[in-house]
Automatic annotation (TrEMBL):
GO terms for cellular component: outer membrane-bounded periplasmic space. It comes from Litoribacter ruber. GO terms for molecular function: carbohydrate binding. One of its GO terms (biological process) is transmembrane transport. This is TRAP transporter substrate-binding protein. The lineage of its organism: Bacteria, Pseudomonadati, Bacteroidota, Cytophagia, Cytophagales. The keyword Lipid biosynthesis does not apply.
Length: 326
């Protein structure tokens, strides 16, 4: 064998070994865009540990944080072609693959935390996890992503009128854009990884997110006003490529699903702790945290539901079903 062919042989051998299939060990790569201090990343590490323990090392998950493997949208595309195994994604981003998930982007959808848990862990939530299978994406479980509120650079948001004329960063979600418009703001889609710079440079005047994400992203260094109006409670979804899922044996699927469900319970616990810690630390850093009257914000989005009833009756029916389960 000549030298070039020998080199190709050894590179191919290394690639095969790197796939983790040797000695009956399967390795699934999981990429996401959050930092290593984020509670969701901690839950994903716990998921990896649980999976390895349950399978006695036969099934392993390798976690790549900080957009190492791409942006949220890019990771979804990699899942669709089977080049990546798993990711954590906001349900808002999933709307493009499973339109019924738009219901989670509706403002003030849930009465309280107990109502949200009952929906997500019940028949409605479990059915919605599988809505994206036609797009080669399968939801395994939900992670708590808290409630989203507005943070701004120059002045606090005490009333929807304060949002008029402001460019507010939103995710790539029609429902999120419509909500910000209903409040009077100008929705501006920006990649999460580029948001810090966009805030610094004045490309946007503010954004909306939960306390741990605001803290771990360090956006509070730029935005010193945080108005806890809790306009939407978007869950995160742990997603696996169906191309990868379908290659798993029955036992591997059981190990992975059990680990996912247990990691969700763990994640909810550490999320609550992370929220308290984030708010305390941001106050210490000089962030002015306010609690505006939610009634004003609820009133501002009432027309959204009338439009929903007319233009998206399927989503409106699902919304009613969730409301009736209070």
């Amino acid at each position: 064998m000549n030298r070039p062919n020998l080199l190709i042989f050894f590179l191919t051998l290394l690639l095969f070994v790197g796939c983790g299939q040797q000695q009956d060990v399967r390795v699934i790569k999981l990429g996401h865009g959050l930092g290593v201090s984020h509670p969701v990343h901690e839950a994903l590490i716990y998921l990896s540990q649980l999976t390895e323990e349950k399978s006695e090392g036969k099934l392993q998950i390798k976690v790549y944080p900080n957009q190492q493997l791409g942006t949220e949208r890019e990771l979804m595309e990699l899942l669709q072609i089977g080049s990546l195994g798993m990711t954590k994604v906001s349900s808002a981003v999933m709307e493009g693959f499973a339109p019924k998930l738009q219901v989670f982007s509706l403002p003030y959808l849930f009465k309280d935390d107990e109502h949200q848990d009952r929906i997500l862990n019940g028949p409605i939530g479990k059915k919605l996890l599988l809505e994206s299978e036609d797009y080669w994406l399968r939801g395994l479980t939900y992670y708590d992503a808290g409630k989203r509120s507005f943070y701004t650079k120059d002045a606090p948001i005490e009333h929807p009128d304060n949002l008029k004329g402001l460019k507010i960063r939103v995710m790539e979600s029609n429902m999120a854009s419509n909500m910000v418009k209903a409040f009077g703001g100008s929705p501006t889609p920006v990649s999460y990884g580029e948001l810090y710079t966009a805030l610094q440079q004045g490309i946007v005047d503010g954004a909306e997110n939960n306390p741990p994400s605001l803290y771990t992203s360090r956006h509070y260094e730029v935005c010193k006003y945080y108005a806890i109006n809790e306009h939407v409670a978007l869950p995160d979804i742990l997603v696996i490529s169906t191309k990868v899922w379908n290659t798993l044996s029955y036992q591997e699927k059981v190990w992975l699903q059990e680990a996912a469900d247990e990691s969700a319970v763990y994640q909810q616990k550490i999320w609550q702790e992370a929220e308290i810690f984030a708010l305390e630390e941001m106050e210490k850093a000089g962030v002015k945290i306010t609690y505006p009257d939610q009634g004003d914000f609820r009133s501002a989005v009432e027309l959204m539901f009338e439009s929903l009833k007319e233009n998206k009756p399927e989503i409106y029916t699902l919304y009613q079903e969730i409301q009736q389960s209070m």
